[in-house]
Write a structure and sequence with these properties.
The chain has helices at about 40-50, 125-130, 140-145, 150-160, 170-175, 180-190, 200-215, 225-230, 235-250, and strands spanning about 5-15, 25-35, 75, 80, 100-105, 115, 120. The longest helix is centred in the last third of the chain and has 16 residues, at about 235-250. The termini are far apart. By secondary structure, it is α+β, with helices and mostly antiparallel strands.
């Protein structure tokens, strides 16, 4: 059966650099297959722009399988678009209707300066991870790991937190532009397990301090981050981060 096609208007953000003034451009695209992904639609737009002698739109992408966290843009006001627990590369054009106007802009956060068009600098998240440091406990070989008894519900909670791909959508959706869900997930995945508890206090303090230094805000408990997270990370991880931070603030000493 032939795939359905739609005609859309793309209202897309263009910005030549971090200090340049940005603007929206409108482009009409015809006969876009509803089976194509959102990024494939952007590929079609760029091919059309190149044929017309115009500069293509810059956007982040890598695996296009919802794993790497590279893709990311705000689509009609929602980070990663309208579908729940879906990265931008997994969003398909069947989520839109014929004649729709689709507004596409970069993640907006002080800690994510725009590099060009839809590409933002998310290296702040890398620096936050680095601030968390390493796990110094030798985990041994695979069979040694089975000697450490961990309750199933704890192991599952740690795995759920570890599902975070660091895409930054939480900061883009947050009214205070803070990646608190990201930090909560990274702290939780280690604080829940025995191997990560040795540096747990130092990790929580350092990661929050780094977040502040990067110019992000603080959590307002709006839950927008949870709503747009492509991996369904729960804000319970933010509550755990807060507990870990308070414990560390009162008891940790160099």
């Amino acid at each position: 059966m032939a795939s359905k096609t739609i005609n859309i208007i793309v209202k897309i953000w263009r910005q030549n650099g971090p200090t340049a003034k940005g603007h929206f451009e409108d482009h009409a695209l015809k006969d876009i297959s509803t089976d194509s992904s959102f990024l494939e639609m952007l590929d079609v737009l760029n091919e059309w722009l190149a044929m017309k002698g115009h500069e293509p739109v810059s956007f982040d992408h890598d695996c296009r399988e919802g794993i790497c966290g590279m893709c990311g843009a705000v689509v009609n006001g929602t980070a990663h678009g309208p579908e729940k627990e879906t990265t931008l590369c997994q969003l398909h054009m069947r989520s839109f209707k014929d004649g729709d106007t689709i507004v596409i802009e970069p993640f907006r956060a002080r800690g994510f300066p725009v590099i060009k068009d839809l590409v933002v600098d998310r290296s702040a998240l890398d620096r936050i991870i680095q601030a968390g440091g390493f796990v110094s406990v030798n985990t041994g070989s695979p069979q040694d790991g089975n000697n450490i008894l961990i309750p199933q519900h704890v192991a599952e909670a740690a795995m759920d937190a570890a599902a975070c791909i660091g895409c930054g959508a939480c900061a883009a959706a947050c009214p205070n532009a803070v990646p608190m869900l990201f930090i909560g997930a990274k702290v939780s995945q280690l604080a829940l397990l025995p191997q990560g508890q040795l540096e747990a206090k130092k990790r929580a303090l350092n990661m929050v301090a780094c977040m502040d230094n990067e110019g992000f805000g603080n959590c307002g408990n709006e839950r927008e981050c949870e709503n747009v997270c492509p991996k369904g990370i729960s804000i319970r991880n933010i509550a755990r981060l807060n507990r870990e931070y308070l414990k560390a603030a009162f008891t940790y000493a160099e």
